Amino acid sequence: MDWLPLLSTLTGAAIGIVATLIADRNRWKHEDVKEAHRLRLDIYTQYTTTVKVLGETLRALAKRGHPSDDERALALREAFRDSGIAIASERMWLIAPQPVVQASNSVFHCLRRICDGYADGTVVSSPEDRARWEARGKAAAEMRKLMREDLGVGPLTERHSPLVDDYSNPAAQ
Predict the structure, then answer these.
(1) CB under 8 Å, gap of 24 or more: what pairs does 122-129 form?
(2) What count of other Cβ atoms lies within 10 Å of the Cβ of residue 97?
(3) For all residues of the chain together, what is the average pLDDT?
(4) Following DSSP, what letter does each residue of 74-130 receive, concatenated?
């Protein structure tokens, strides 16, 4: 019996199977990387959106008249709690790399200081308020920079939000 044709067939089949397995494994790896990237993008978008909406809500509540200081503080703290920032923050802690987590946590604490300041009676656009918002702006810019690096997106050349002083200058908007 001639074994050469049988051996050639088996060798060819083994090479085909191995090549298919390698190609499938590479495809699965590529899909896993794409899915992880998509998940981080979703989490980053949720967090940055929550940060922006919460900031606008806190400022609006602080400007609004309230029957008492206690009711103002209660409204501000409820807005913070109901904003979804705690959930968005926990998702960051579970998925994001360490530098992004640290930066997002910094933004979280800046917003907490803004909320607490308003609850304690800080006037909107006072020097103390402006300093807190500027700290939040710098922390958010650093966070976005790290998020963009993690996502493989190039750096931005402009600031996302104007400086607090720029809100009174229409040319800066």
Answers:
(1) 122/62, 124/59, 124/62, 124/63, 125/164
(2) 13
(3) 89
(4) HHHHHHHHHTTHHHHHHHHHHHS-HHHHHHHHHHHHHHHHHHHHHHTTPPTTSHHHH
CA–CA separation, 85 vs 83, rounded Å?
5
For residue 91, give Cα distances in angstroms to 23, 121, 128, 144.
33, 32, 31, 16
148-171: pLDDT as tens digits: 999 999 887 776 665 555 544 434
- Give the number of other CB atoms < 10 A from CB of residue 118: 25
pLDDT digits 0-9 by tens, 68-106: 999 999 999 999 999 999 999 999 999 999 999 999 999
Cα-trace Rg, the chain: 26
Q: Which of 171, 168, 162 is nearest to 136 (CA)?
A: 162
Q: Residue 29 carries which side chain, given as an amino acid letter?
A: K
Q: Output the pTM of the full model.
A: 0.78
